[in-house]
Amino acid sequence: MRIARFSKIVATFYRFGLDEFFAGRARVGFIHRLCQLTPLPRDLSAPLPQRVRLALEALGPIFVKFGQVLSTRRDLLPEEYADALAHLQDNVQPFDGAISHQVIARNLGRPVAELYAEFDDVPVASASVAQVHRARLHGTDGKPGRAVAVKVLRPGILPVIEQDLALMRTLARLVERFLPDGKRLKPQEVVAEFDRHLHDELDLMHEAGNASQLRRNFTGSDMLLVPEVFYDYSAREVLTLEWMDGIPVGQIERLREAGVDLKKLSRFGVEIFFTQVFRHGFFHADMHPGNIFVAADGRYIALDFGIVGSLTESDKHYLAVNFLAFFNRDYHRVATAHIESGWVPKETRAEELEAAVRTVCEPIFDKPLSQISFGLVLLRLFETSRRFNVEIQPQLVLLQKTLLNIEGLGRQLDPDLDLWDTAKPFLTKWMNEQIGWRGLLRTLKHEAPEWATTLPAIPRKLNEALSGKSTELVVQGYIQLMREQKTQNFLLKLIALLLAALLLHDWL
């Protein structure tokens, strides 16, 4: 079975001329020369990035999904390849409605007729991992039940996934070994990341939890609607969500006909993004137009919660600092923020990083602010960081991908959208809240439960460090204390520093 699948991959590789990747390579150039001598028909009419996309589509849904994930790694791929892969589509035939009945009954323990008053056997959407049916719950007290969307995992998908993943791992090892850029592209790491995403999608309860969190974060919002999860009708292979009526956000003419304020909608998109990132630290990371609808009242509707991103308080702080510094052209602050955050090695000279950032960003800022792309700024930042041996963190890559989607959507709705004008007041207010007295009170309230156990331990830890009667041990003890998980709060670090100074003063 695996040999047959591998043969298809090789044939597809040949058909679309992907051997061009090996042209002129000392160790693998013979593959390109051999393919050129083979007289079988080939399709070489499109540019190479487009042929890569066509090859992945020909190999089926798992490779399509891999290409979609790969398109988010703009820190690794050339821009033309990332753009081509971003247009990959799941063209997957739906499976029979009777099979959906079997999957639902096996997971929920009751037949579909008992669970739902109505169930449309013809799916409204079909993708590589699951398909969606419209249904209605049973009503009570003579009232009709609520309309729902029932997502059903594609049967028999796990063996197919495991087989294709095994082949991808083999191909990744070959790429890393034989291509000059193999190690920089980190193919094994990318496949491992894809493995994690895909297995998360195979457990629909994972998506249910994401949807519930996002819905809770936007309760009462006048900008975003998130469907309710019906947990009594959900399991690992079945997810039942509130049915949401709306217009796909990409259908601009229908939105105009419905009287939707497109300029307001475009601003909402930016505000929703920054709210998720900086207020919640939890964001929908797959916000392409296919997953976004617009309700009759002009609010966005979010769908498909399989991929989300999360950010730590430190991530949020340094992102805000970087955005503000970038758009104030304070490149020295950009450089120092990168070093402070640990995104680049600590031995990096701030002046060198500052010069590199200035070289990349000045041409961008030569345009009016309304035409500057936040996503492009992040992308250029990643490209610059590569020179300084930075390890780009996955949550930041997801963030950059989401930001590009939001920008593209916002400017499709309103070509004159000034993202900076919309975002700067939000970021400035957020930063003031973090570093002002309100931020201090919030931090004190948040950290107070930890103090009962942390504060009493500080003198003991410092005394242990002093037991060797060595100034070096005092310093080492303080450094060790600073690395403790529970002493990451600034105020606790300050207290610890004062105690260390007092103890050291008494000893000396």
From TrEMBL:
Give the Gene3D superfamilies listed for this entry. Answer: Transferase(Phosphotransferase) domain 1 (1.10.510.10)
Question: Matching HAMAP family, A to Z?
Answer: UbiB (MF_00414)
Under Pfam families, the record lists:
ABC1 (PF03109)
NCBIfam families, per database record: PRK04750.1, UbiB
The pathway is: Cofactor biosynthesis; ubiquinone biosynthesis [regulation]
Q: Does the keyword Transmembrane apply?
A: yes
Mind telling me what this protein is named?
Probable protein kinase UbiB
The gene for this chain is: ubiB
**What job does the chain carry out?**
Is probably a protein kinase regulator of UbiI activity which is involved in aerobic coenzyme Q (ubiquinone) biosynthesis.
Q: Where is the ABC1 atypical kinase-like domain?
A: 88-337
Any keyword Transferase? yes
Instruction: Tell me the InterPro entries matching this sequence.
Output: ABC1_dom, Kinase-like_dom_sf, UbiB, UbiB_bact, UbiB_kinase
What does the entry list as the binding residues for ATP?
Answer: V124, A125, S126, A127, S128, V129, A130, Q131, V132, K151
Quote the EC number.
2.7.-.-
> Which species does the entry assign this protein to?
Vogesella margarita
